[in-house]
# Entry
Amino acid sequence: MTQQLSPQDELIVFEDDHHEVPSETSSVPWKMLVVDDEQQMHKATTFALQGFVFEGKPLEILSAFSGQEAREILQQEEDIACILLDVVMETENAGLELVGYIRDEIKNNSVRIILRTGQPGYAPELEVISKYDINDYKAKSELTRTKLITALTSALRSYEQIKAMETGQAGLEYIVKSSRELFQERSISGLSRDVMEPFGNLAKCSPSKVLVCGSHNMSTKNTALVLASGSDINIEANTPISELGDDFNIAIANAFSSETSLFDGDIICLFAKSPSGHKIVIAGQPDNELEFVNKKLLAVFGVQIATSLENTYLFEHINEIAFQDNLTRLKNRNGFLDKIQSLLANNNQTHLLLLIDIDNFQAVNDGLGHDTGNSVIKMVAERLTSTYPNAVIGRVSGDTFGVYIAVATDEDRELIPQQLYKALETTLQIGDNELPVSVSAGVAASDTCECDANELFKNAGIALKYAKSNTKGKHQFFDPAMDEQLKRRLNVIKELKGALENDEMVLFYQPQYCLKTNQYIGVEALVRWFKPDGTIISPMDFIPAAEDSGQIVHIGEWVLKTACEQQVKWTQEGLPPLRVAVNISMRQFKDPNFIDYVHETIQSTGINPKYLELEITESMLTEDAMVFIDQLSMLRLDGITVAIDDFGTGYSSLSYLQRLPVDRVKIDRSFIRRVESNQGDKTIVSLIIKMGHELNLQVIAEGVEDQEQTDVLVELGCDEVQGFFYAKPMHANDLKELLLKKQP
# Structure
């Protein structure tokens, strides 16, 4: 159908470019088919092309909103000159499938096709562009009115010439074939070499006597440079045309300055200009005067060169984007790995690959904004570049950098990573903010892998993970044992998926003893994994694996529900009410359904909330204490108690601790192990107990293993204890028997 548009229609605004058109027009219009599933694009295109006239003929716009509708129109209309085609419509490949239908099924090779898309990720592959003789390709965001008219004019001119030159069919076939080959060229130098032979054939001159020159947005004739030359001319690339002989210099300069092809004279020049302003002149000395058909064929060839020139610059730009980080101008991950691979293949010298991650970078982004975050990234990049001037440096992800540097001596292996911390020891001045920057690094040596960049990168990544988990703010060298441990963890993650469903998980309970009443007053629920073959998987292995894979949320929900059900069952069996403590991971706490699940569990199991205690580790408080304060407060309103586990090993702020809605602190077992013999440990334990009591908190000591430790804890005023001296973790039935024996 023909799309009509009134001036009052709401439009997608095109850039307001000035474009004059002749006042006299022919009654026979050019037909252009717009194929796009967006109504606004039809309106915007029609609006942008109002009054468009080419060679005295107006434009008639046909509209199709799907590939199928376009097929029906193409079956009815035989003289469509140009198709403006959306790549992605009812399917991701609808546009390209329509191109295949046009070229292969109905054998329409004259209509010009301009692809456009609003989704950069759906840019057509080079093979598709070349295979189907697509005239042009544009992103919707860059298709201003001027560029649209320029592209359309180019397409119509190409269509007119193709239709008019029936006598030059063989020449046209040759041009199309050559153009397809030109479309496959990704570099300007390669394109310049490739145009010499077809130009020579069309201009009836030897390719050895052809000269190709180019310029981008040339302001004076002296800015044009030689791009390629035939063997008889043999001029070095990048030579200014002013240094050429007079005949070539004058002819080529005239073609550039007039922006027209010159087909008369001893030296002929074919001028082509892409929509983006890239210019090229192909010059040669024909054996005879050019005939009319040769001039026309060259003109068509010039249109194709202009399109190829645009696409070649586009591919060079895409290649730059593909291998370069836009923010820092360093190599991105692809470029970094590509360079490393080439060095590994051609250099036997040992290199170190450092993967460097900015610690707590997300806090900078969240707290100070992305602009400040980007400034941090750029300043770190500058310091790395100045610190390692002879290294390959890349930004391989958001806040992670890669440095690949040669190792001259054994000392370099340690000195090179140390230079990293010296480079970042001073704060970054960003506006009014002075920001200290801490980094962690994973280091892998090229002599530890078999000349493969991806393997080396993987090894450094494994080491980085260890550095961030165990030695944050420092570096860690890769050890093959890390890879083995990672493989074991991945295997554990795989097996974890069916552990709950197969009833392989079991809860054990370790009693907690009150030193003041000399009674068991609570238990801690501890999950154990027994595989069908009898193998016992340590919590030290499967809990971190469950954390990494996210399965800890599902496991944690099962632990919470099972522990609550067991507490209720013990009470119903006549045991004194016991407080049951359940460990909560960071993954669980951050789950948006966590609070609701706790409430649902309380309701479904019937447990009295005052007998449920949730344990969080002190290290979790460093993540986001304010979030903990809000959520823990909600839980305590229900009567649930809260304990801080492993207290003394983290770095929580005392001001946060004072504000945290908690009831109990658990002194980490590392301080209890030598509390009776080490004065330093005894002092720390004493301070924790006093601080807890000052904050109205109960204090429980973990890992109590003998009477001597118990005596010291009683002396220091500790409230409760937990450890092998009182009872090991045990099955629910065994715990029941233990407690029944203790009853009077």
Observations:
- Residues 166-320 form a domain with the Beta-Lactamase fold (CATH 3.30.450.40).
- The radius of gyration is 37 Å.
- Residues 561 and 601 are 6 Å apart (CA to CA).
- The mean pLDDT is 82.
